[in-house]
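Quick one, C-alpha cells below. Sequence please?
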C-alpha cells in the first residue's frame, strides 16, 4: 500500500514538473560572493549581501548606488522594509537592524544557538 502511494506521488510530481522555467535575461552585478538579494518596492531598488560582510544597493538597472561594509563577515540574509534593512550574520548569529537612509546601525541581537 505504501509503495503504491509513493509511486502515485512520485509519478504525479513528474507529470506536474515538466514545465521548466527559463531565464529571459541575466546580469552580472558588482556584489562579491552574493548570499541574498532583496527588492525594495518603495523605490524599485535592490539590496544584496555578501559573504564578505558588505551590503550593496543597486538601482532598477542593477547599477551600484552604494556599498556599505559592516563589521560582520558572513552575511547570509537580507530583508527590507520602509525604514530599515535587516541582515543576518551566520557566523556570529547576529540579526542587525540598519537605517535604510544613512546605513547607521539601530540594533543588534544575538540569536541563541538553541533557537
Amino acid at each position: 500500500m505504501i509503495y503504491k502511494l509513493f509511486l502515485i506521488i512520485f509519478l504525479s510530481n513528474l507529470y506536474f514538473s515538466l514545465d521548466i522555467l527559463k531565464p529571459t535575461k541575466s546580469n552580472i552585478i558588482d556584489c562579491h560572493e552574493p548570499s541574498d538579494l532583496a527588492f525594495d518596492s518603495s523605490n524599485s531598488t535592490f539590496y544584496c549581501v555578501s559573504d564578505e560582510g558588505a551590503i550593496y544597493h543597486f538601482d532598477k538597472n542593477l547599477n551600484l548606488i552604494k556599498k556599505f561594509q559592516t563589521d560582520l563577515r558572513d552575511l547570509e540574509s537580507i530583508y527590507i522594509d520602509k525604514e530599515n534593512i535587516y541582515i543576518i550574520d551566520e557566523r556570529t548569529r547576529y540579526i542587525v537592524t540598519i537605517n535604510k537612509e544613512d546605513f547607521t546601525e539601530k540594533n543588534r541581537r544575538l540569536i541563541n544557538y538553541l533557537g
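DSSP finds one helix and eight strands in the chain. The mean pLDDT is 87.
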